[in-house]
C-alpha cells in the first residue's frame, strides 16, 4: 500500500490534526466530540473492509457495546472514566473475538450477514434488559467525573483528551497496516489461495484483525457515550452499522485518513442539514450527496486526492 | 513497507503548535431570547404537532410583539426523530447555546429525556405533546411542567366511562415505548376502579404499519373492548386494520388518544368514536377566533389541541418572563407555581405547585360522520366538559416525590 507512505499522507494528517484542534472553538464542542468518535469508528471499519476485504455489517455492536459498558461502569461505580473506557474496550475485544471466530470462516455476503445477525441479537438484548440499560430511554451518564485524574465536565477539556486517544489509536492503526502483519493481510486480500499456499493461516490473521477493529470501535463508542452523557439504542442499531460503512466508502477505503474525512463530512453534513432542512429532506440531501460522491469519486474523497497527487 | 517517519512528526508538530484557548462564555442577558421547539417534524406525530406547532409558536411570539424585556425572541426548531437520545442531545445543545425554554416534546420518550436535561441544566421545559403521566409522577422535577393532557386524564375519562357502561374485558394494542407503557398502566388502573380488567395487551414498535396479526389475535380473544392505546399515525393504522377485520362488529373500540389530524386522515373510520381531548378549535368564540387565524396561515387546516397548547404555553411563559423581569428558571417557577390563568386554550387553568401538572378543563367529544359536519374539519361535538379537579390526578394522590 504505497498510499500511506511518502509526504502526501503526512500533509493530510497535519491538516486533519490542525482542523481537529480548532474544531471545538468553531462548532458546538459536543458535536466535535461526535466527529472525533465517529472518525475513529470509521477507521475501525476501514481496517476490516479496506485492508482485509471483510465488509462487516454489524460494526455498531462493538461501538454500541463499548458505549453501553462504559456507561454502565461509569454510572454504577463513579470510577475514573479511564476505567470505564477500558471496560468498554475489553468488552468489545472479547465480543469481537467470539463473533470473529464464527464470522471469519465465511466471506462476502455471508460474513456480512453473520455480523448483522449477532449485532441484532445484541440490540434486542440491550432493548429488553431495561434494568441494566434503560431500554429505549437509553442509559444516562450524569456528571462525567474525571479522565486520567483530570476533570472532564467541561466539553472542551473532554474533547481534547478524547482527541488525544483518537490520534494515538489512529497512529496505532497506521503502524499496524504498515507492519509485516499488515503485509500478510494485504497478500491475503489480493490472493487468498496463494497466501494459504505460502503457509499462512489466513483465518487467524482475519480473526486478529477483526478483534483489533472491534476493540477500536469499542473505544470510539465509549468516548462517544461519555461525551454525550448517554448510551442510547441508536448506538447498537443496524442503521449505525450502515452509516459507518457509508462514511468509510465516502472517504475512501483502505486509506485510514479517508474514513476520518468521510466520518467528519457525513456527521457534520447530517448535523447542519438537520438544522436547516427538516426531517425527511435531511435524508434526501444526504442520499443525493452520497450518490454523487460514489459516482464522482470512485476511490472516495481522500482516495481520489491521493491518486491525483501521485500522478 | 517502511512506515513514513514524517507522519508522526507532522502530527506532533501540529499538536504542539496549537493553543488550547477557550473563548469566553457568552453573556447571559443580552442578545436574543431563544425558545427551543423540540418536536416530531417528519414521523408518526408530525401531523398533530410538527410544522403546525412551529406555526403556532411563531404566531405566539409575533402576537407578543416579538420582544420581551427589550430582547428579541427567536424560535429554534428541533426535529427529535422520535428518539429519546436524539432529543436529549439536542436539548443539551439548545440549553448550552442559550435556549431558555424547551417546548412541545411530542413523544413521551423525548419528553422524559428533555425533562432530565432541564433538571440538570436548571432551565425550563414545558411539555405539551408528550402524554406520559410519569412526567408529573416518577419523573417529575422542579423545571418541567406538563401542560396539555396526560395518560391519567385520558384513562380516567375514556377508560372509566366505557368500563362503567359495560365494557369489562379489555384487550390492549400498545406501542412499545414510554408512552404506551404509561398509557397501559393508567388505563389498567382506571378500568379496574370500575370493576373491569385487561385480559391481554400486545406491544408493538412505534410506527408499525401492519396490524393484521394483532387484530386476528384480538378477535380470537373475544374481549368486550379493544383499547387502542396509541397515538397519531399508529392510531390511524390500527383503527383501519380493526375495521378491515370487522372487529367493530364484535366489540367496542376505545380510542385512547385521538387528534383532529387523525380524523382528517381517515374521517370514515373514526366516525362514532367517543374520545377525550384537551381543546377543540370550535369550542367557543375565543378558540374559533384563534383557529381562524391559524387556518389562514396553514392553508385552511384547523389546529389540533397540541398546536393550540403550544401557542398558549408560549404566551403564558412570555407573560411570566415579563412579570418576573428575568428568564431565570428558578424565578419563573416561583412566579408560576400555584398561579391561576385563563386563555383561549386553558379554561380554569392552574400551574399546580405540588407536581407541576398544569390543570384545566378537559372535554369528552363525539366524532361526527361526514354527513353530519357543518364545515370542513368540524369533526368533534363536545358532549361533556370535565372540570380540572376531576380531569387530572388529584393532588392528594400525586406520586411525585417533590424534592425541590
Automatic annotation (TrEMBL), chain A:
Where it sits in the cell: the answer is: Cell membrane
Q: Name one GO molecular function term.
A: branched-chain amino acid transmembrane transporter activity
Against InterPro entries, the record matches this protein to:
ABC_transp_permease, LivM-like
Q: GO cellular component annotations, sorted alphabetically?
A: plasma membrane
Say where the protein is mainly found. Answer: membrane
Q: Which UniProt keywords apply?
A: Cell membrane, Membrane, Transmembrane, Transmembrane helix
Which parts of the chain span the membrane according to its record? 48-74, 81-103, 109-127, 157-177, 207-231, 243-264
CDD domains to which the protein is assigned, alphabetical: TM_PBP1_LivM_like
Topology with respect to the bilayer: Multi-pass membrane protein
Q: Which Pfam families match?
A: BPD_transp_2 (PF02653)
Query: Can you name this protein?
Result: Branched-chain amino acid ABC transporter permease
Which organism does this sequence originate in? Vulcanimicrobium alpinum
TrEMBL record, chain B:
Do the record's keywords include Repeat? no
Q: What is this protein called?
A: Branched-chain amino acid ABC transporter substrate-binding protein
Q: What family is this protein classified in? A: Belongs to the leucine-binding protein family.
Does the record bear Signal in its keywords? yes
Q: Show which residues constitute the signal peptide.
A: 1-27
Q: Which InterPro entries match?
A: BCAA_transport, Leu-bd, Peripla_BP_I
**What Pfam families has UniProt attached to this entry?**
Peripla_BP_6
**Keywords tagged on the record:** Signal
Ranges where the Leucine-binding protein domain occurs = 32-370
Amino acid at each position: 500500500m504505497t498510499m500511506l507512505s511518502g509526504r502526501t499522507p503526512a500533509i493530510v494528517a497535519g491538516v486533519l490534526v490542525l482542523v481537529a484542534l480548532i474544531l471545538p472553538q468553531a462548532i458546538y464542542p459536543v458535536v466535535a466530540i461526535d466527529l472525533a468518535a465517529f472518525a475513529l469508528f470509521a477507521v475501525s471499519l476501514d481496517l476490516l473492509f479496506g485492508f482485509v476485504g471483510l465488509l462487516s455489517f454489524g460494526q455498531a455492536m462493538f461501538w454500541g457495546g463499548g458505549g453501553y459498558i462504559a456507561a454502565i461502569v461509569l454510572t454504577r461505580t463513579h470510577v475514573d472514566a479511564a476505567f470505564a473506557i477500558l471496560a468498554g474496550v475489553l468488552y468489545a475485544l472479547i465480543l469481537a473475538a467470539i463473533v470473529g471466530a464464527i464470522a471469519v470462516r465465511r466471506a462476502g455476503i455471508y460474513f456480512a450477514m453473520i455480523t448483522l445477525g449477532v449485532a441484532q441479537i445484541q440490540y434486542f438484548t440491550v432493548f429488553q434488559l431495561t434494568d441494566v440499560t434503560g431500554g429505549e430511554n437509553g442509559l444516562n451518564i450524569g456528571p462525567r467525573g474525571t479522565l486520567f485524574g483530570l476533570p472532564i465536565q467541561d466539553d472542551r477539556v473532554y474533547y481534547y483528551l478524547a482527541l488525544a486517544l483518537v490520534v494515538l489509536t489512529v497512529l496505532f492503526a497506521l503502524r499496524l497496516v504498515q507492519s509485516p502483519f499488515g503485509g500478510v493481510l494485504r497478500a491475503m486480500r489480493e490472493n487468498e489461495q496463494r497466501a494459504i499456499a505460502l503457509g499462512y493461516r489466513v483465518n487467524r490473521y482475519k480473526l486478529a484483525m477483526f478483534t483489533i477493529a472491534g476493540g477500536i470501535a469499542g473505544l470510539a463508542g465509549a468516548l462517544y457515550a461519555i461525551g454525550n452523557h448517554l448510551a442510547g439504542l441508536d448506538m447498537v442499531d443496524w442503521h449505525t452499522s450502515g452509516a459507518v460503512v457509508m462514511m468509510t466508502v465516502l472517504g475512501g477505503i483502505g486509506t485510514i485518513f479517508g474514513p476520518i474525512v468521510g466520518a467528519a463530512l457525513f456527521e457534520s453534513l447530517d448535523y447542519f442539514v438537520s438544522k436547516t432542512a427538516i426531517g425527511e429532506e435531511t435524508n434526501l440531501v444526504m442520499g443525493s450527496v452520497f450518490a454523487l460522491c460514489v459516482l464522482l469519486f470512485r476511490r472516495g474523497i481522500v482516495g481520489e486526492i491521493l491518486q491525483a497527487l501521485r500522478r | 513497507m517502511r512506515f513514513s517517519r514524517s507522519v508522526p512528526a507532522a502530527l506532533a508538530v501540529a499538536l504542539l503548535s496549537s493553543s488550547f484557548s477557550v473563548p469566553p462564555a457568552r453573556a447571559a442577558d443580552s442578545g436574543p431570547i431563544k425558545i427551543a421547539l423540540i418536536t416530531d417534524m417528519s414521523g408518526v406525530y408530525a401531523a398533530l404537532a410538527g410544522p403546525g406547532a412551529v406555526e403556532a409558536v411563531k404566531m405566539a411570539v409575533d402576537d407578543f410583539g416579538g420582544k420581551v424585556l427589550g430582547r428579541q425572541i427567536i424560535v429554534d426548531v428541533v426535529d427529535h426523530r422520535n428518539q429519546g437520545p436524539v432529543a436529549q442531545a439536542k436539548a443539551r445543545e439548545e440549553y448550552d447555546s442559550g435556549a431558555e425554554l424547551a417546548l412541545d416534546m411530542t413523544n413521551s420518550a423525548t419528553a422524559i429525556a428533555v425533562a432530565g436535561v432541564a433538571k440538570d441544566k436548571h432551565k425550563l421545559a414545558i411539555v405539551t405533546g408528550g402524554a406520559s403521566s410519569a412526567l408529573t409522577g416518577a419523573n417529575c422535577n422542579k423545571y418541567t411542567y406538563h401542560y396539555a393532557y396526560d395518560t391519567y386524564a385520558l384513562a380516567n375519562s375514556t377508560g372509566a366511562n366505557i368500563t362503567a357502561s359495560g365494557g369489562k374485558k379489555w384487550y390492549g394494542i400498545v406501542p412499545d415505548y414510554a408512552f404506551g407503557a404509561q398509557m397501559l398502566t393508567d388505563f389498567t388502573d382506571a378500568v379496574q376502579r370500575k370493576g373491569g380488567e385487561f385480559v391481554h395487551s400486545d406491544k408493538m414498535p412505534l410506527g408499525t404499519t401492519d396490524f393484521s396479526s394483532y387484530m386476528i389475535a384480538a378477535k380470537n380473544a373475544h374481549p368486550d373492548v379493544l383499547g387502542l392505546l396509541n397515538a397519531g399515525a399508529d392510531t390511524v393504522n390500527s383503527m383501519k386494520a380493526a375495521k378491515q377485520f370487522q372487529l367493530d362488529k364484535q366489540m367496542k373500540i376505545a380510542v385512547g388518544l385521538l387528534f383532529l389530524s387523525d380524523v382528517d386522515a381517515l374521517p370514515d373510520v373514526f366516525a362514532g368514536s367517543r374520545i377525550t381531548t384537551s381543546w377543540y378549535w370550535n369550542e367557543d368564540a375565543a378558540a374559533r377566533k384563534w383557529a381562524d387565524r391559524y387556518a389562514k396561515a396553514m392553508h385552511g387546516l384547523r389546529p389540533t389541541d397540541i398546536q393550540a397548547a403550544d401557542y398558549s404555553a408560549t404566551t403564558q411563559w412570555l407573560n411570566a418572563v415579563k412579570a418576573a423581569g428575568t428568564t431565570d428558571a428558578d424565578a419563573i417557577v416561583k412566579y408560576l407555581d400555584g398561579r391561576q390563568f385563563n386563555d383561549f386554550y386553558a379554561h380554569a387553568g392552574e400551574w399546580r405547585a405540588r407536581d407541576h401538572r398544569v390543570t384545566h378543563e378537559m372535554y369528552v367529544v363525539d366524532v361526527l360522520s361526514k354527513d353530519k359536519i357543518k364545515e370542513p374539519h368540524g369533526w368533534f361535538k363536545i358532549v361533556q366538559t370535565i372540570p380540572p379537579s376531576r380531569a387530572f390526578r388529584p393532588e392528594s394522590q400525586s406520586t411525585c416525590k417533590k424534592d425541590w
